[in-house]
Amino acid sequence: MTKENGPLITTIIPTYRRPKLLKRAIFSVLNQTYPNFQICVYDNASGDKTAETVRELAKKDSRIKYYCHLKNIEGKNFNFGLSKVNTPYFSIFSDDDILLPNFYEEAIKGFKKYPEAGFVATQTIIATKKQIKRISCEGYEEKLYNPPEGLIKMSDCGAPTWTGILFRREIIKEVGLLDEKIGGPSDTDFLLRSASILPFVILKSPGAIFLVHKLSSCSTWSEVEPLSGYKKILEKIKHNEKISASARLAVYQNLRKRIVNILWQ
């Protein structure tokens, strides 16, 4: 596949003090069968070999862009990256995760088939170094989900892992950025807000690997406990007038059950 004029996809990679893992993440993008992208690395003031690592790679491939904050802005780094998107599509994933080679190519095919979709989600393999824990999007069918069906399904089966999601840029205008007050579960909140007003596509093929370990987040959210974040998500659903009262009730009950299970685990 040949490159088109200018990038169509922005790959956002927030990073903090993990240059070796970041290098692997960048290579997983460079190995994509779909080549029309730019990689934007947003360094949360690592102060280590991160800058050197990225700049050496950028010398060999001009699609790699690098920005370093003067100080660590914690979870705001994700929104900083999202606010800079200037291409029709974007994806965002942490510096310790991996994109599988066909991810962008398959996701673009999904958009061509369903141009009304706000995002296309492939399956993500959630794994430790030793074993596969689970694969996302279990319980979903491969199809276009319109609201409120998609929102209800998401609340019941769980939100897709955004490591394996390609978004349309307009979703930022429609939904806004991440809610930083929610902290860690802000990605789930972003997807729920998206599904409440926009259709999305599920593809039942793996597109990414999310690695689970003690330091799975590439930055620390500002002292917001997960329980507090999940409570805020439930409150948002309860008062979301963009969906019908019956859908709100179903989504609220499904989410509450899932959140209790997550916290129990």
Fraction of residues in β-strands? 15-25%
Number of helices: 9
Order of helices and strands: EHEHEHEEHEEEHEHHEHH
Q: Tell me the helix content.
A: 25-40%
Question: SS-based structural class?
Answer: alpha/beta
Distance between the termini: 44 Å
Mean pLDDT across residues: 92
Would you mind describing this structure in some detail?
The chain has 265 residues and is an alpha/beta fold. The protein is built from 9 helices and 10 strands. The longest helix is centred in the last third of the chain and has 20 residues, at 245-264. The protein is globular. The N and C termini lie far apart (44 Å). Residues 217-224 have low confidence and may be disordered.
Write the layout of secondary structure elements.
Blueprint: E1 9-15, H1 19-30, E2 37-43, H2 50-60, E3 64-68, H3 76-83, E4 89-92, E5 98-99, H4 103-113, E6 119-127, E7 132-135, E8 144-145, H5 149-157, E9 165-168, H6 170-175, H7 186-197, E10 200-211, H8 226-238, H9 245-264
Parallel strand pairs: 1-2, 1-4, 2-3, 6-10
Antiparallel strand pairs: 4-9, 5-10, 6-7, 6-9, 8-10
Helix pairs in contact: 1-2, 5-7, 5-9, 8-9
Search tags:
10-stranded mixed sheet; 9 helices; 10 strands; 38% helix
Please summarize what this structure is:
The protein has nine helices and ten strands. By secondary structure, the chain is of the alpha/beta class. Strands 1, 2, 3, 4, 5, 6, 7, 8, 9 and 10 form a ten-stranded mixed beta sheet that branches.
